């Protein structure tokens, strides 16, 4: 499938990105996509006209446009689970009809959004109270898609917070919930239990712990609980009244669910108007994705750049490097989005995937990462395509000099990766510092940067709620396009099941209620160690 592109990659092996710029003055604009105040620059890669044409041809052959239209039309493209994939309906603020099995789902989507808004407003205005008075703190208990999105987005939009403080608990490690609850007043805290299935062991364990904590201090703990779930029978069983439950349909995948009730903490933090602005950003990116020709389509070109680097050039990982401290959780969010979606080895047709699945995604905000792992990115033996991301302006005018430094560092890194430093330049630099002969030669090779290392940069004016919505939807569609090209189902996640089953078996083994006999030697030894510690 990638033969033609691989041949092009081979032919470009000796090609410097710097030379591509020297040969084409217009390269920066020719190899970038602009949309609504955002610029995606992929010119600092070895993608040429021929490569881009080959990549677009691949996308056309794999019928990306037809699959995209099928998704937006509500067809059951999540074939292994027999479901439509319609998180886009949650941000369809214009209420264009979206049919699932012949029924328009928009009235229900908008009714739930309106209920969320009434609830958030009442909470923010102090009309919904705890036993001790107005709610000051909200604790969201959830994991995976019921945690990473709201946590990431709530941090990202900190400058817009004017509601109660939001806290996030996800890990079954008791330290997580302990450290959050121990700082809070139960009488003025609201707990949101967020779980699509309402069965996830981590979330249900944390929810029960929170309920006990609340019950120890207030008379009607259930009144200070809210559930966000698509399993309304289970939320009732847990004791949460139906009017305190915000439901969503099974056609919203967990890692795509931030746009609906799973986004409730974000709405509480920033208010319904800014939450709508966030949704409008997502909707704008949907329209761009549906209408723009491939070469001017930001999600498509971001996806094709990823395919070029991973499937064609063979670079095993991709670093996401937001130069924005408030996007500190974005790499973790994108890890789930990309690796849970495209980390598959079987195609839709049930065959073995030919070639690599989606890449390993990792990252940290800049500039922190520069003082940690960028060493390997610049001088290590593996090439790591980097995806930089930065806002031209920050939210703190009084700290504009900080932001200037932040942007300068971001631009400097992509420049350094591309340009590098030759042996000759290294020698000159060391000579200027006064070293000569052997001492100079011993140092010089260590100071060489190979350069020619690819990166993309997404730059935008400022991280507003709308901009964040555009960025998240951009990445969602990028993952979709990559999945279509691979021919896999990006919307199931069977790979998380086995560990869950085995953890269920191991818990009674750790307490001694069940025998470890059937387990392998390593697991038996680890169990024995744990039991030994427990017995002191
Ligand atoms: O274990 C993986 C997973 O199913 C994710 O796909 C999901 O986002 C997460 O667990 C949480 O699931 P739930 O919202 O049902 O608790």
From TrEMBL:
Pathway: Carbohydrate degradation; glycolysis; D-glyceraldehyde 3-phosphate and glycerone phosphate from D-glucose: step 2/4; Carbohydrate biosynthesis; gluconeogenesis
Localisation per UniProt entry: Cytoplasm
InterPro entries in UniProt: G6P_Isomerase (IPR001672), G6P_Isomerase_C (IPR023096), Phosphoglucose_isomerase_CS (IPR018189), SIS_dom_sf (IPR046348), SIS_PGI_1 (IPR035476), SIS_PGI_2 (IPR035482)
EC number: 5.3.1.9
BP-aspect Gene Ontology terms: gluconeogenesis; glucose 6-phosphate metabolic process; glycolytic process
Gene Ontology cellular-component annotations: cytosol
Protein keywords: Cytoplasm, Gluconeogenesis, Glycolysis, Isomerase
Catalytic residues, chain numbering: 340, 371, 500
CDD domains xref list: SIS_PGI_1, SIS_PGI_2
Chief location bin: cytoplasm
Catalytic activity annotation: alpha-D-glucose 6-phosphate = beta-D-fructose 6-phosphate
GO molecular function terms listed in the Swiss-Prot or TrEMBL record: carbohydrate derivative binding; glucose-6-phosphate isomerase activity; monosaccharide binding
Residues annotated as transmembrane: none
One protein family per Pfam: PGI
NCBIfam families: PRK00179.1 (NF001211)
PANTHER family, A to Z: GLUCOSE-6-PHOSPHATE ISOMERASE (PTHR11469)
Protein's job: Catalyzes the reversible isomerization of glucose-6-phosphate to fructose-6-phosphate.
Similarity comment: Belongs to the GPI family.
UniProt protein name: Glucose-6-phosphate isomerase
């Amino acid at each position: 499938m990638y033969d033609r592109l691989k041949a092009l990659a081979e032919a470009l092996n000796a090609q410097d990105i710097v030379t591509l710029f020297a040969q084409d003055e217009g390269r920066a604009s020719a190899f970038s996509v602009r949309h609504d105040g955002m610029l995606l620059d992929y010119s600092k890669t070895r993608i040429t006209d021929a490569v881009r044409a080959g990549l677009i041809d691949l996308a056309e052959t794999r019928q990306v446009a037809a699959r995209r239209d099928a998704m937006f039309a509500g067809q059951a493209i999540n074939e292994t689970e027999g479901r439509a994939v319609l998180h886009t309906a949650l941000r369809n603020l214009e209420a264009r009809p979206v049919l699932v099995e012949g029924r328009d789902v928009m009235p229900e989507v908008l009714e739930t959004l309106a209920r969320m808004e009434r609830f958030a407003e009442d909470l923010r205005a102090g009309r919904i109270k705890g036993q001790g008075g107005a709610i000051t703190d909200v604790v969201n208990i959830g994991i995976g898609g019921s945690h990473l999105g709201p946590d990431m987005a709530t941090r990202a939009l900190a400058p817009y917070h004017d509601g109660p403080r939001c806290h996030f608990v996800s890990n079954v490690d008791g330290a997580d919930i302990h450290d959050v609850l121990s700082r809070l007043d139960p009488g003025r805290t609201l707990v949101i239990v967020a779980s699509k299935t309402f069965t996830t062991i981590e979330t249900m364990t944390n929810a029960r712990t929170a309920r006990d904590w609340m019950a120890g201090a207030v008379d009607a703990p259930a009144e200070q609980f809210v559930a966000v779930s698509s399993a309304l029978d289970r939320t009732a069983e847990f004791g949460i009244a139906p009017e305190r439950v915000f439901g969503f349909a099974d056609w919203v995948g967990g890692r795509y669910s931030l746009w609906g009730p799973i986004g409730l903490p974000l709405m509480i933090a920033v208010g319904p108007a800014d939450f709508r602005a966030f949704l409008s950003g997502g909707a704008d990116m949907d329209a761009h994705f549906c209408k723009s020709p491939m070469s001017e389509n930001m999600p498509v070109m971001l996806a094709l750049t990823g395919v070029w680097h991973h499937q064609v050039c063979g670079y095993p990982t991709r670093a996401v490097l937001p130069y924005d401290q408030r996007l500190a959780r974005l790499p973790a969010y994108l890890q789930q989005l990309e690796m849970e979606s495209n980390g598959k080895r079987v195609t839709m047709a049930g065959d073995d995937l030919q070639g690599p699945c989606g890449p390993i995604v990792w990252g940290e905000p800049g500039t922190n990462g520069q003082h940690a792992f960028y060493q390997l990115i610049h001088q290590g033996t593996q090439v790591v395509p980097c995806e930089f991301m930065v806002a031209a302006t920050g939210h703190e005018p009084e700290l504009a000099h900080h932001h200037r430094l932040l942007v300068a560092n971001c631009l400097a890194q992509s420049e350094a990766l591309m340009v590098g430093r030759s042996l000759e330049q290294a020698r000159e630099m060391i000579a200027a510092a006064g070293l000569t002969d052997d001492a100079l030669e011993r140092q010089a090779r260590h100071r060489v940067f190979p350069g020619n290392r690819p990166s993309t940069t997404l730059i935008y004016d400022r991280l507003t709620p709308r901009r964040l919505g555009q960025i998240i939807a951009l990445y969602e569609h990028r993952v979709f396009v990559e999945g279509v090209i691979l021919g896999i189902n990006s919307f199931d996640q069977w790979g998380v099941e086995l560990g869950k089953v085995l953890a269920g078996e191991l818990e009674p083994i750790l307490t001694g209620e069940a025998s470890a006999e059937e387990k392998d030697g390593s697991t038996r030894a680890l169990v024995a160690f744990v039991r030994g510690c427990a017995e002191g």
